[in-house]
Amino acid sequence: xxxxxxxxxxxxxxxxxxxxxxxxxxxxxxxxxxxxxxxxxxxxxxxxxxxxxxxxxxxxxxxxxxxxxxxxxxxxxxxxxxxxxxxxxxxxxxxxxxxxxxxxxxxxxxxxxxxxxxxxxxxxxxxxxxxxxxxxxxxxxxxxxxxxxxxxxxxxxxxxxxxxxxxxxxxxxxxxxxxxxxxxxxxxxxxxxxxxxxxxxxxxxxxxxxxxxxxxxxxxxxxxxxxxxxxxxxx
Length: 235
What we know:
Elements: H1 7-13, E1 16-20, H2 28-38, E2 42-45, H3 52-65, E3 72-77, E4 87-90, E5 105-110, H4 113-119, E6 125-130, H5 142-154, E7 165-168, H6 176-181, E8 187-189, H7 191-194, H8 199-215, H9 218-233
Parallel strand pairs: 1-2, 1-8, 2-3, 3-4, 4-5, 5-6, 6-7, 7-8
C-alpha cells in the first residue's frame, strides 16, 4: 500500500496545477488518470452552477484516478457551502470564515500588489494563486511579471517558511522562462493545456520542464529535502 504524505507537504512540493471544467470530458476518469500520469499535481474543477452531487462524483472519480500518486483535487467555488475535495479555491473577494478542523483547505487568489502582500500573509490559505500574469488580449507581461517578482520577494519559494504560491492567469508555454526569471517556481494553467492539440502531451511537457528546472536548482532541492524532513518529524 502506498503511504501518501500529508496535504500540506503535497502542496508545498507541487509544481503544476490545472483548472478545468467538466464540459466535453465524456471520459472524466480516463482524462484525470492521463493528466495525473503526465505530471499534474493539483487539479481544480471549475464548474459554476453545477449540482453539488455532480461535483462530488467528479471529485471522487478524480481521487480514484490519482490514488497512489498523492495528487491534490479541489474545486473553484464562490463559497464553502459544499466544497468536495482536498481544497476549495475561493475568490479573494469572498468573505473568509474562521477555519475549523473540519473545514476544507483554502486556495486564494492575489491579483494586485496589495493583495500579494495581504494574501501571502493569510494563515487560512493553503496556497495562493498569483496573477493574472497576462490578462485577455494583453501582450505586455510587464505588470504580471512585476506581480510575480513581488510574490517571490515576499515569499521566496526555496524558503521552507514561505507560504505556497503559484503563478497563474494566461500563462503560455512561451512564457515559461520569463515567469521563472521573475521568481515563480509553480504554475496553475488552464487554456495552455486544455486548448493544446494534445492536452496530455502539453501537460507532460510542462511537468518535465518544471521537474528539470527544480532539479537544476540546488536551493530548491534543499527545500524539497527540508519539506520532507519536516513531514517525517511531524513539524
